[in-house]
Write a structure and sequence with these properties.
5-stranded mixed sheet; 344 residues; globular
Length: 344
C-alpha cells in the first residue's frame, strides 16, 4: 500500500501546532508554538488572546513542519485539522487554514476529534491493541473510553463537573503557583505527605463517572480557614494530599473498569498524562494486578496538545473515507462517538 503523508493542524486551545505524519504512526515533524507566557499573567487561557496568537503563528508552524519533514505541499496526500472540542475562535483559525490548503492544492480535508487525537498519540510509539481502554485526563476532559476497534469510541465514564486539569489549575491559583498549575502541583506533591483528609468523591459508586468540584471546594476551604485562624499549611503536604485524592479516584475507577472490560492495552492520554504521580500509580497497578495488559502512555511531548496526534488519528479517518468538504465548521462541544467502519 502506498505511504500516506498527512499534514495536520491543531489549534483547539492555546497551542498552535502543525505536523507531518506518515501512515499514522511516524511523525516526520511536530512543531508546537506555545502561548503559556502570554496567558500566565491571567492565570488561565483568554480565548481572544489565544485566537490572535493562532492567527499570528499558523503559517509559520505549517512552513516549519514542512521544512523539518523535508517535504513540499505537493508531497502531502491530505490535510487534517481539529474540528472540536475546544475554543471556537481557536478552532476556526486552524480550520480556516486547513480548508484554504485543501482548496488550493485540491487534496482531501480530514476532520479530527481532539480527544481521539489524544488517544492515538500512543500510536506514534507503539501499535494500538484492541480491545483497549483509555483514560483521558486534560484541562477540559476526564473520560474512560472503551474501544473494540479503530474509531469505535464508547465513553463509559466521564466527569460530572470539573475536569482533572481544570481542578489542578484552580488549586494552583489558590497556592499562588505559576500557570499552568498541574506541573507545579505535581512537583510540590513529590516533596510532601498525604496528611489532609480530602474527599474521594464517587470512589465506591457503582459507575465510572467522576466528580472533582467537591475536592476543589475542600482544598479552597482548607486554605481559607487556615488563613482566618492564622494557621500555616505546608504547601507540599497540601499539594500531596490534593494529588493523592485525585490519583486514588482515577486508579480505583480504572481498576473497576478493567475488571468489567477485559482489554489488551490501557492508554493514559491527555495533558495530565504527563503527571509523574499518576503515571507511577497506574504503572504500579498494572505491574501488580494486570500484568497481561500493556500500559501505554505517550512521550511527555505528546501528552499536551500537538498536531502529530491529530495526524495519527486522521490516518484512520482517511482510510475510512471520513472526509469533510469546505463547509467544515468548528464544533466546540464535539463528543467522541461510536463510528467504526472498515479501513486501514
Amino acid at each position: 500500500m502506498k505511504d500516506v503523508f498527512i499534514l495536520a493542524i491543531e489549534s483547539s486551545c492555546d497551542e498552535t501546532s502543525a505536523s507531518v505524519v506518515k501512515n499514522g504512526n511516524e511523525q516526520l515533524s511536530n512543531i508546537v508554538a506555545s502561548q503559556i507566557k502570554s496567558h500566565m499573567r491571567f492565570g488561565g487561557v483568554v480565548p481572544e488572546v489565544a485566537s490572535r496568537h493562532h492567527v499570528e503563528q499558523i503559517t509559520q508552524v505549517i512552513d516549519e513542519a514542512l521544512r523539518i519533514a523535508n517535504m513540499s505541499m505537493e508531497d502531502i496526500d491530505a490535510f487534517a485539522v481539529t474540528e472540536g472540542p475546544g475554543l471556537v475562535g481557536s478552532l476556526l483559525v486552524g480550520i480556516s487554514a486547513a480548508k484554504a490548503l485543501a482548496m488550493a492544492y485540491q487534496k482531501p480535508l480530514i476532520p479530527v476529534n481532539h480527544m481521539a487525537g489524544h488517544i492515538y498519540a500512543s500510536q506514534l510509539h507503539q501499535p494500538l491493541q484492541f480491545p483497549l481502554l483509555a483514560l483521558l485526563v486534560s484541562g477540559g476532559h476526564t473520560e474512560l473510553v472503551y474501544m473494540e476497534k479503530n474509531n469505535d469510541f464508547q465513553v463509559i465514564g466521564e466527569t460530572r463537573d470539573d475536569a482533572v486539569g481544570e481542578a489542578y489549575d484552580k488549586i494552583g491559583r489558590i497556592l499562588n503557583l505559576s500557570y499552568p498549575g498541574g506541573k507545579a502541583i505535581d512537583e510540590l506533591a513529590q516533596k510532601g505527605q498525604d496528611t489532609l483528609a480530602f474527599p474521594r468523591a464517587m470512589i465506591h459508586d457503582n459507575h465510572y463517572d467522576f466528580s472533582f468540584s467537591g475536592l476543589k471546594s475542600a482544598v479552597i476551604n482548607t486554605v481559607h480557614n487556615a488563613k482566618q485562624k492564622g494557621d500555616t499549611i505546608n504547601p507540599e503536604d497540601l499539594a500531596a494530599s490534593f494529588q493523592a485524592s485525585i490519583i486514588d479516584v482515577l486508579v480505583h475507577k480504572t481498576k473497576q473498569a478493567l475488571l468489567e472490560y477485559p482489554v489488551k492495552q490501557f492508554i493514559l492520554a491527555g495533558g495530565v498524562a504527563a503527571n509523574k504521580g499518576l503515571r507511577f500509580a497506574l504503572s504500579e497497578l498494572f505491574e501488580k494486578e494486570f500484568p497481561t495488559v500493556q500500559f501505554s502512555v505517550p512521550d511527555f511531548r505528546l501528552c499536551g496538545d500537538n498536531a502529530a496526534m491529530i495526524g495519527a488519528a486522521a490516518y484512520h479517518n482517511y482510510c475510512q473515507n471520513r472526509l469533510a468538504n469546505l463547509t467544515l465548521n468548528a464544533k466546540p462541544g464535539l463528543e467522541l462517538t461510536k463510528n467504526s467502519e472498515k479501513g486501514c
